[in-house]
Amino acid sequence: MKKKLLPILFLLLSPLFAMGQTVPTRTEVIDLVKKVNGYWQEKNPKHGRAFWDNAAYHVGNIYAYRLTGDKAYLDYSRAWAEHNQWKGAKSDNKSNWKYSYGESDDFVLFGDWQICFQVYADLYTLEGKKDEGRIRRAREVMEYEMSTPQNDYWWWADGLFMVMPVMTKYYNLTGNKLYLDKLYEYFSYSNTIMYDPQAGLYYRDNKYIYPKHKSANGKKDFWARGDGWVFAALARVIEELPADNEYRMVYEDRFRTMAKAIAACQQPEGYWTRSMLDPQHAPGPETSGTAFFTFGFLWGINHGYLDAETYLPVALKGWNYLANTAVQPDGRLGYVQPIGERAIPGQTVDANSTANFGVGAFLMAAYEMAQFEGCADL
User: Which of 112, 122, 158, 205 does the annotation list as catalytic?
Assistant: First the structure.
């Protein structure tokens, strides 16, 4: 994180105070993390499968552990990993492994079953790299996948979050450069089918490309959570990518392009609507996309990739929505759109709408909020 002199920081924050945007203290952020994460874990004592939604929560739970140092969080994720035998989809018959959409155990190469490998890598690293059995299955799956001639594994926006950070994490664990080469190859394929260079945003998948598909008011329909997955994925990849990687500028440039496009469609209340360019398509707040965007903006500011003068107001508006509207008095995280793949007109999303992946996204945003230099107990 690039450090700033306190007088400069004061000058930067003063206009935000005047606009009613407050920077929380680190203690306030940690207290909120404990409230939200404590509520989730208390309400969900039984561990589920290693599919994407549960795994996305555990990605966030690792951030919560790093922020708070609460060993109970680490124990919770380890118990989940053990429950799932440190695997995603469990088939051992490689001739039957598939990578289209599927929730059964033969869809080993489907990215929604691979996001768990991020959590396993983090647990392996955080607990001293003592048991290589924790990452053996992940390496078996990913290294088999990279040995195939296919490059179309990431055909939906969510998949970039599910698997891109797997590639950087396992490069850093193994030193096998193929992880980085295939990261770029698979990402490049995704860009040919989902990325809109005029908008600087991603369609959820090729079913939603304009003008084949339009929003209710005839606009391009970019789904907030889908672009949130991509924006957060780019931040997490850049953070762990070697400084001299030949493709680094590709990821950095795309991250900055997306930041500009995302900021332009934030609502005055700080949230993003489900259809980003058509607020009336599915009006009202949505927490999961907003949390991923807030994470990305704060990460970009904290690591020197985004200009604070431009993007800090955006990040703080997002955070203030999360902290003061999305989080309910009992710790439940509300306004999370249910599992799906698009903005749905008429779908109810309210204070009672919550989900594991939304909590994970919130915990990620909270971690970066706590790292911001102005977020201190002064």
Answer: 158
Nearest to 113 by CA among 122, 123, 104: 104
CATH number at residue 271: 1.50.10.10
Element (H, E) at 202: strand 201-202
Query: From the CA atom positions of the chain, what is the Rg in Å?
Result: 20
Least Cα distance to 367 among 37, 13, 18, 10 occurs for: 37
Using alpha carbons only, give the angle 66, 69, 73 rounded to the nearest 5 degrees.
Answer: 80
CA-to-CA separations, 348 to 92, 283, 340, 352, in angstroms, rounded: 41, 10, 13, 10
Domain range for residue 60?
6-371
376 found inside a domain: no
Mean pLDDT of the chain: 95
Q: Is residue 378 part of a domain?
A: no
- Number of domains present in the structure of the chain: 1
Farthest-apart Cα atoms in the chain, separation: 62
Q: Is the pLDDT of residue 167 over 70?
A: yes
Measured between alpha carbons, how far is 159 from 157 in angstroms, rounded to an integer?
5
Whether the per-residue pLDDT at 10 is higher than 90: the answer is no
113 within some domain: yes
This prediction has a pTM of 0.95
What's the angle, vertex CA 226, arms to CA 278 and CA 361, rounded to 5? 115
- Give mean pLDDT, residues 293-304: 98
**What does DSSP assign to residue 341?**
S
- Is 158 marked active-site? yes
Q: Exposed, middle or buried: residue 8 (CB in 10 Å: 0-12, 13-18, 19+)?
A: exposed
| Distances from the Cα of 59 to the Cα of 81, 116, 347, angstroms | 12, 8, 27
pLDDT given at position 15: 53
CA angle 196, 199, 202 (to 5 degrees): 45
DSSP 40: H
Position 377 in a domain? no
Q: C-alpha 340: how far from its chain's center?
A: 16
